[in-house]
Amino acid sequence: MPLAFSIEIGVRPLAKLGTYKGVEVERREAAADDEAIDAEIERLRDRLATLETVDRAAELGDHVVMDYVGKLDGVPFDGGEGPDQLLELGSAG
After folding, report:
1. What does the pLDDT read at residue 93?
2. Distance between CA 41 and CA 35 in Å, rounded?
3. How far apart are CA 64 and CA 53, in angstroms?
4. Confidence band of 62 (pLDDT split at 50, 70, 90)
5. Residue 40 and residue 29: Cα distance in Å, rounded?
6. Cα–Cα–Cα angle for 17, 18, 21, nearest 5°?
7. Following CA atoms 32, 35, 38, 43 in sequence, which dihedral angle do they give, to the nearest 10 degrees?
8. What is the mean pLDDT of the chain?
9. Which of 13, 32, 73, 84 has the greatest number of CB atoms lying within 10 Å of its CB?
10. 3-state helix, strand, coil in the chain (%, to 5)
């Protein structure tokens, strides 16, 4: 039996540029209202902020690291504990 084989070679098509010289494109101006700018600045502050330990009682807005155990009728329940949880005092979450 004679030896037979096949081969595929990928060939890139030649790129042909159309007319592009002299074409004018309207430039869009970036626009953002003051609220959007303030919101982005706050988001960056939160993301890049660092926490420092202080020697005083915790206050609203402070971040604390705490351990907790949830109980029903005085009995701990599965999934109701959290060691070393970071929480901002007064936050909704």
Report:
1. 63
2. 10
3. 9
4. very high
5. 19
6. 100
7. -90
8. 91
9. 32
10. 15, 25, 60
